[in-house]
Design a protein that fits this description.
The protein is an alpha+beta fold and 757 residues long. It has 31 helices and 27 strands. Strand 23, helix 25 and strand 24 form a beta-alpha-beta unit. Helix 8 crosses helix 9. The longest helix has 35 residues.
Length: 757
């Protein structure tokens, strides 16, 4: 089995068309963080570690390009570049490097011409190999010289046709690499095939008793069979991504200002346009309900099974299903920036990062061609010097070229990563970066945020001392914030939320403030709201979130929350695995202590601002600790970035999802131990694959150089090594949820005052 997907084919008619203009490339790109622009390219001719280095190198040399990453599973290159100057000639640079490419499109990705070409080429090679082996039976059985020569000539005809048709997949890839001044794995493979064929034709014309036509065609058959299986494996791994893309509607009915309706493709709908979503249809793009009420199925987005009632003003995301009623939705994001598009990008990002093991495998694969060429040359020269038999020396060199193909090494890491990413998706966890798996397997401490992570985060006001116009002012302030505390206070007096607020400002970790009716209000931490440190007596008065008017107390709100189901069980599971568990929170000490005691967490820290959480994590890092941070919300984004690896729920704030390495769907915490289990299993399988791949080459190279291998045996051994590596990756077990005593206990709803804004 080969590590490569199909080699570089000659451009298809669609690929020979004129390259897209700079304006088309810019239109197909999207703005990302730090003022950069990202362009996705489809590079179907990419197939090995050498291709990764060549493609990424050709793109990063262009002026304005900041980074380029190639995903072998998707044949997709992601290029980030700085706007302002001319659009980088991305496609021209790849063409000059020997790789035909086009702008990436999911619609094009649904077609799979490479698979059809591989199957045809494999079938031709298999037909030729079987018939040549049948003809060889009579030769092995001792046929007379005339019959043997006739069968060799017939075998030569079949072999030449098979090599010309099926071998072109390797030859074109090798020629593209050589033409661009580089090399790849197909160069020595092509040399081995052509040399074996040439030697066999020479022996046939010289009427020698043996030829290697069966080995030549069998080698092509095994290589193509392996590449076909590899292609199918990578294709299968992408079914979740393709399924998610296919699930979305192609377009929607756009309602013009005059009331007329026009159907537009999804990619052409712009923010601000009004679309109609009928009952039974999925919401195509993110937006806000403007007209209508309905129940929507949000399971694809949030993991929740129950329907969600939406009314005018409700924000909805792409992928949600309208169960009943008719909705008119004002679009807020383009198709490239929608929630579903972001999820698809996260699901595909697992192979973009260069984890430690992946970098080792890539470097080894990049060194393969020159090392193997050197070994084959040395073997040839050594046998010539020892025996003087050029025929025998050339046969040994051919065997060295074939048997040392590092296909197993090239497959060792990506196959495990692909299967692991699929297992994570089955558990509702999206992996944003491939290296996160490796880092996740190394953690020794798990740190949780409290509100929205260990607790449900759906707060309600338990006690309130605010009345009158102050209560209306508090509702007006909190109506402009998405923080859980703000939503709880706003619900208390939502009829007053229409009051105008001037100079509104939200201070993460502190609260909200603004001017209402000429008075300056602050709602949040008591010390911040009142502008002074609290005495012991004051703390007994302000037990929750304080409201201040013009610097003076206007009352307080005390909020209650509940622990997430199975939260204590998750903590127990983590401790059983030898991991330390801690809680970092901005709440008051008594609140955090109560939650920690209920969950069985011995290490907890209260009253922390976002910078305090980050400082705590950095201190653990300096001490050698390896921390997994689990949190959500705007306040947790710096801490998520500071941890070795981080997780956030899909319901987290945009900043939290962007900072996290893994995003999990649904409301439960079982995703945390499940992700740890998958990461540790992946780490173990990668180690096994790397050890096997290195051991295989260390074992077979001396045997091949010593002349104890024929070309046919070399082809079988090389293919078997790749099959074993893939089979080991497929041993990846499915995770099973564990039920402990904690799951059987009724974890009560604790009245926990939540952290202030």
């Amino acid at each position: 089995m080969a590590c490569c997907a199909p080699g570089a084919e000659s451009p298809l008619p669609s690929q020979r068309a004129e390259r897209p203009s700079a304006e088309e490339i810019l239109h197909a790109s999207r703005n990302i963080e730090d003022g950069l622009v990202q362009t996705d390219l489809s590079v179907p001719s990419a197939h090995c570690g050498s291709c990764i280095a060549a493609i990424e190198g050709a793109l990063t040399k262009l002026e304005g390009v900041v980074s380029a990453r190639l995903n072998l599973s998707t044949r997709r290159a992601t290029v980030k570049w700085r706007p302002g100057g001319p659009v980088p000639p991305l496609l021209r640079a790849l063409s000059d490097a020997g790789y035909e490419a086009s702008l990436f499109s999911y619609e094009d990705d649904e077609a799979d011409p490479e698979l059809a070409r591989l199957i045809r080429a494999t079938a031709v090679a298999g037909f030729a190999a079987m018939n040549i082996m049948l003809l060889s039976v009579s030769v092995w059985a001792g046929a007379d010289e005339t019959t043997r020569h006739a069968f060799h000539l017939l075998s030569a005809l079949l072999a030449v046709l098979a090599v010309a048709y099926s071998g072109r997949i390797f030859f074109r890839s090798a020629w593209a690499a050589v033409r661009s001044g580089a090399t790849n794995m197909d160069v020595p493979i092509s040399l081995g095939i052509l040399l074996a064929l040439a030697l066999s034709v020479h022996d046939t014309l010289q009427n020698e008793p043996h030829a290697y036509f069966d080995a030549t065609t069998a080698l092509i058959f095994f290589l193509l069979g392996g590449r076909t299986l590899d292609h199918l494996m990578r294709r299968k791994a992408r079914t979740a991504v393709l399924g998610l893309a296919k699930m979305m509607p192609r377009g929607a009915s756009v309602i013009a200002p005059d009331g007329t309706r026009t159907y537009k493709p999804q990619s052409e709908i712009e923010p601000g346009e009004l679309v109609l979503v009928a009952a039974g249809e999925r919401i195509p793009l993110d937006g806000t309900v403007e007209v209508g009420t309905a129940d929507i199925d949000a399971a694809l987005v949030t993991g929740e099974a129950g329907p969600l009632a939406v009314t005018p003003g409700t924000q909805v995301l792409s992928g949600m299903m309208n169960l009943n009623g008719s909705l008119q939705i004002r679009i807020t994001r383009t198709a490239r920036d929608s929630f579903i598009a972001g999820m698809i990008r996260m699901m595909e990002a697992a192979e973009h990062a260069r984890a430690h093991y992946r970098r080792i495998a890539d470097r080894a694969a990049a060194l393969y061609s020159p090392v193997v060429h050197g070994l084959a040359a040395l073997a040839f020269l050594g046998w010539i010097a020892a025996t003087g038999d050029w025929h025998r020396s050339l046969t040994v060199a051919i065997c060295v070229l074939i048997i040392t193909c590092p296909c197993a090494l090239g497959l060792a890491v990506p196959m495990v990563q692909v299967v692991a990413a699929r297992r994570l998706l089955e558990r509702g966890i999206a992996l944003k970066e491939g290296s996160a798996l490796e880092r996740l397997a190394e953690v020794d401490t798990v740190v949780f945020d409290k509100t929205g992570t260990l607790t449900i985060g759906e707060l309600h006001v338990a006690r309130c001392s605010v009345t009158g116009k102050d209560l209306s002012a508090a509702a007006a302030l909190t109506a402009r914030s998405r923080h859980p505390v703000s939503r709880a206070v706003a619900e208390l007096a939502e009829k007053a939320s229409h009051i105008e607020v001037e100079e509104f400002r939200e201070r993460p970790g502190y609260g909200v403030e603004g001017r209402v009716g000429g008075d300056h209000y602050r709602l949040g931490r008591p010390e911040w709201a009142l502008g002074r440190q609290l005495s012991t007596a004051d703390r007994s008065l302000f037990s929750g979130t304080a409201l201040a008017r013009n610097g003076s107390s206007a009352g307080f709100f005390e909020l209650s929350d509940a622990l997430r189901p199975r939260a204590r069980e998750v903590v127990e599971m983590l401790r059983d695995r030898g991991l330390a568990v801690a809680m970092l929170s901005g709440d008051r000490p008594e609140t955090v202590s109560a939650a920690a005691a209920s969950l069985g967490i011995q290490t907890s820290h209260a009253g922390l601002l976002p910078e305090d959480k980050t400082a705590w994590l950095e201190e653990r890092r300096r001490e050698g600790g390896k921390v997994l941070m689990v949190g959500d919300g705007l306040n947790d984004a710096p801490a998520l970035s500071a941890a070795l690896v981080s997780m956030a729920p899909a319901s987290a704030a945009d900043a939290g999802r962007a900072a996290a390495d893994l995003v999990y769907f649904g409301s439960g915490l079982m995703a945390v131990p499940e992700a740890l289990t998958i990461a540790r299993t992946a780490n173990r399988l990668v180690r096994q694959n790397l050890i096997f791949a290195v051991s295989y080459n260390a074992l077979v190279i001396p045997i091949a150089v010593a002349g104890h291998v024929t070309p046919l045996i070399a082809a079988l051994a090389m293919s078997l090594s790749s099959v074993l590596v893939v089979a080991n990756a497929l041993r990846f077990p499915r995770t099973k949820q564990r039920t402990t005593g904690a799951a059987k206990r009724n974890i009560s709803m604790l009245p926990l005052p939540d952290k202030a804004l």
